Amino acid sequence: MDVVTLRLYVFFEDPFWVGVVERVEGGKLSVSKVTFGPEPKSYEVYDYFRRNYDQLKFSPAVETDVKEKRVNPKRMQREVHKAVTTNGIGTKSQQVLKLQQEQMKTERKAASREQKKLSKERRFELAQQKKKEKHRGR
Length: 138
Fold this sequence. Notes:
Order of helices and strands: EEEHEHH
Largest sheet: 4 strands, antiparallel
Shape: elongated
Radius of gyration: 24 Å
Structural class: alpha+beta
Strand content: 15-25%
Number of helices: 3
Oligomer: single chain
């Protein structure tokens, strides 16, 4: 049975509140980023992810080490508090988000390049057609 671990980090990234979802599945980490705008309440965050989880675009999976261990609840609470006060998201998550951003950028550039090529070919065909109509001999 596969174990899927989800972690949600909500933090303020000037000027918006941002949520980062980390999904570890089969030893591979993928990340998705959501921009909330004004500070969301906890029930708003829960409701948002309950309704829109299937529409999140996760980054390509990156190999990561999975550690399974039991932690004392008080210790876990202290570590969460420490993590929230010191830094927003893990560096691995930032790297994965950057990778996703670069991938989306290359996809956009490829689509834009293809669109420009098609437009140029269409204009060339129209010019050729117009030139032929001028020299019909009428």
